[in-house]
Each structure stands twice: as structure tokens, then as C-alpha cells.
Design a protein that fits this description.
Among the domains are: 31 residues; 107 residues, Lipocalin. Helices cover 37% and strands 25% of the residues. It has four helices and eight strands; from the N terminus they run H-H-H-E-E-E-E-E-E-E-H-E. An eight-stranded antiparallel barrel has the order 1-2-3-4-5-6-7-8. The longest helix has 32 residues. 11% of the residues are buried.
Length: 205
């Protein structure tokens, strides 16, 4: 028996196959061209566009220049004076004793005193003093100020006679009497009157 040979089945050809391949190739080429153009555009733009890194140093340089100018314009600040610290001076026992003696003498000599030899009155009120003389032919009074330092008294006249001249005396106390010992005095009238004993005169009635 002879075998029958089967004929290959021929598939029908699609119409328009070559046309579709051509259109696909055209679209692909168009896309590639557009992509190349876009890429070229970005490359050209990036070349001619100044980079931000290049601008950085210029900005920093201008900032430095401005800061230097501002530093020149700033006024010079003068240093504030330091507060002075007060240091308490400690007094020695000798100075304390002298201060106490000064206070006692200043209080004790206040009042009106009469010369034991007669002829004069001495009045001291804590700041000023006055020497009055008795008699018809009495001299004008001696008026001035005085200061006490320990047991020493310094008299200074504020009017004639002996205006502005100082006299230093040492004062002594005995009961209700005081005495002045001359240390230094260029006023003749005062030097002749003060170095004597003086009795406290009770002026209260």
C-alpha cells in the first residue's frame, strides 16, 4: 500500500505586513531623534549655564569684604571703669585711744572760761572760739576757729588781730580748771593770753 504524503498547509499571507514594519521603524527613528535632540539641548544648557559652585566663592568674598568694612565702621568701645573696692582701714589701739581722747577733750572744753589772772574770758562752742578782754581800755576780741587732736588744740583767727595765723597748745585738765601749754604760736596777743589757768564759768542762772 502506498502512503499518502500530506501536503503542507499553507497559511494565508497577512495583508499589509511590510507596511506595518516600515511604520514601526519610522516611529522608532523619530523617538531616537527626539531623544537625541533633548539630550543635546540639556548638554548645551548645562555648558552655558553658570554652575552654583562657581558662584559660591564670589558670594563668600563679598561677605568677607562687607564684614571687614563693618568692622572698620564699628565704634571703639571704651572699657568701663572698674568699680573701686573700698577697703576698710583698720585702726590700731593707739589710734583708737587718741580718737577717744580727742572726743573727751572736745566735749570738756565747751563752755565759757574765765582767766584766773583776770582780765579775759574764753568761750568755745565746739567749732569757734572767742577771747574777750575786760576793762575800759580793753582790746577788741579775738575770734576764730579751733580743732582738737588728742590733747592738742589748734586755734586759727578768722579776723584781726593775727588773721589766718594758727597757734598750737596742749590742754590740761584739773577739776574745774583747764590750762593751755604753748607749743607754737606767732600771734603775740593770743600767746600772751592763753597760756594760763582757766576756771569754768557757770553761766546758768
Amino acid at each position: 500500500m502506498t502512503k499518502k504524503v500530506k501536503k503542507p498547509i499553507s497559511r494565508p499571507k497577512r495583508k499589509g505586513g511590510s507596511k506595518s514594519k516600515k511604520s514601526n521603524n519610522f516611529i522608532t527613528r523619530l523617538i531616537v531623534i527626539i531623544f537625541v535632540l533633548i539630550l543635546a539641548f540639556f548638554l548645551i544648557f548645562s555648558v552655558f549655564r553658570p554652575s552654583p559652585k562657581a558662584q559660591g566663592p564670589e558670594v563668600k568674598t563679598t561677605q568677607i569684604v562687607e564684614e571687614q568694612q563693618n568692622d572698620k565702621v564699628k565704634p571703639v568701645e571704651t572699657p568701663k571703669p572698674k568699680e573701686e573696692v573700698k577697703v576698710e582701714e583698720k585702726t590700731t589701739p593707739k589710734e583708737e585711744k587718741k580718737a577717744a581722747e580727742t572726743k573727751v577733750v572736745a566735749q570738756s572744753i565747751k563752755g565759757t572760761w574765765q582767766s584766773t589772772t583776770g582780765g579775759a574770758f574764753l568761750t568755745m562752742d565746739g567749732k569757734g572760739y572767742r577771747l574777750d578782754f575786760m576793762g575800759v581800755d580793753s582790746d577788741q576780741p579775738i575770734i576764730g576757729t579751733y580743732s582738737v587732736d588728742g590733747d592738742r588744740i589748734t586755734f586759727k583767727n578768722t579776723s584781726d588781730p593775727c588773721k589766718g595765723i594758727e597757734g598750737v597748745y596742749e590742754v590740761r585738765f584739773e577739776k574745774q580748771e583747764i590750762g593751755f601749754k604753748l607749743k607754737n604760736d606767732d600771734c603775740t596777743k593770743r600767746k600772751a593770753t592763753l597760756p594760763t589757768e582757766w576756771t569754768w564759768l557757770d553761766t546758768e542762772d
